[in-house]
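Worked Example 4.2. Consider the chain below.
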Amino acid sequence: MSKKKRSEEEQAIRDEIKALRESLSGQQMALREAGLPVIVLVEGWAAAGKGSLIGELISELDPRFYNVVSPVVTPEGEDRYPFLWPYARAIPENGQLMFYDSGWMDCAVRRYLRREITKEQYQNRIRSVTEFERQLRDGGYILLKLFLRIDREEQEKRLRALREDFSTEWRVTEDDLWQHREYSRFREAYEAFIAATGEEIPWHVLDGAHKRTAVRDALKLLTKAISKGLEAGRYVGEPFRESFPLVKMPRLREVDLSPTLEEEEYRKELKKLQRRLGELHNLVYRKRIPVVICYEGWDAAGKGGNIRRLARNLDPRGFDVIPIASPEPHELHRQYLWRFWTQLPRSGHIAIFDRTWYGRVMVERLEGFCTEKDWKRAYNEINEFERQLTEWGAVVLKFWIQIDPDTQLERFNARQNTPEKQWKLTEEDWRNREKWPQYEEAIDEMLEKTSAENAPWHIIESNDKKYARIKTLRLAIAALEKACGEKL
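Applying the procedure from the previous section yields the following structure tokens:
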């Protein structure tokens, strides 16, 4: 090719890039108006130009409405939280763009090839990635996955150039050099990962050896994906069911609420069990076992008092009680599981949720805060989320605090007639009570479809609060003893 011809082609590419940038800039405002969130995942070889590519993509965007993150360099995210935690916590609000500088592919592949995780764990991560990506797409996110490819010789040339320049040598890590030495193994692993995770949401492989062409192709893909999303509107995924091993649960009306406990026996057992749970908390911390305890139940069922007794002897530095109320605007503008991903405990710590992600299939379902497709899809999404937690090593305990309508009315009246407790009773509580049959139907379906073997529901009979507290403590102790694999 002549020099003139090459120059003309290069100018044509530059003109095309300029036009695509202008188009993307206009689309950014349209995304804001439509409330569509966009995630661009840029993966690829070390020195392939991932950072440079992102810089080109954002060059004409309004910085108020996009972010760039590099979660793969967050060591705490890998070591003390679930695999997907650094990526899930970074998802953007509606109307914003998020660019990931490397992500779940690079993290999973590197840890597997370093033999830090087993083959089974690696396969679980691949499955978790496909679930995570699908949940984002079904929740209305536009997800674009790019992979920058360069051959071994090109990588060697670039790494050498970076290392020979004092101002850039810091950018080459020992991991990068190791990847270059093991180029063939990484290529095989990357290709397998792309094949395994590209069926529903495809990967786009770009030629990183030609920077201008890669930038143009990435801009084409991004503007096309956004145009398609703006034209079609927010995507809402269809409900589906994966076959999770489930524990058979009784209907709420079948639960015997007559068990009681005498005061003397209650006090004796309470003190003993609280002391034992405190001992186990120390062991959980030493073994770095994360614990997630979920409380759901009827209004006035006794969740707050139950949580106080359970937490009484726990080290306050090692647990958090997380009250879940109606989502704030910044929470409503993200996929519904986001606010729970951000509240997960570090390994060795305990998170106690006073109400949980199950609001999706109860109050949000009945009060019309989400579509029918959304709440029907949520059963499977929640099972997937909890499976990811237990595969991480977490103990997941789920308590449904059960009372009958007469007991609830009695407690409502007691609150209303006690000045220091009146704040606990709201108009919403009375409105929810009027919908008892509808809520009971929704709860029965929730228990039936989400009591998986790895994270089963425990129904706590709470007409007698003392009995309920003791039962909950015993269940928590049994679960932690099993997780620790020993008795103190």
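Residues 3-34 form the longest helix (32 residues). The domain at 3-232 is CATH 3.40.50.300 (Rossmann fold). Compare this with Example 4.1 before moving on.
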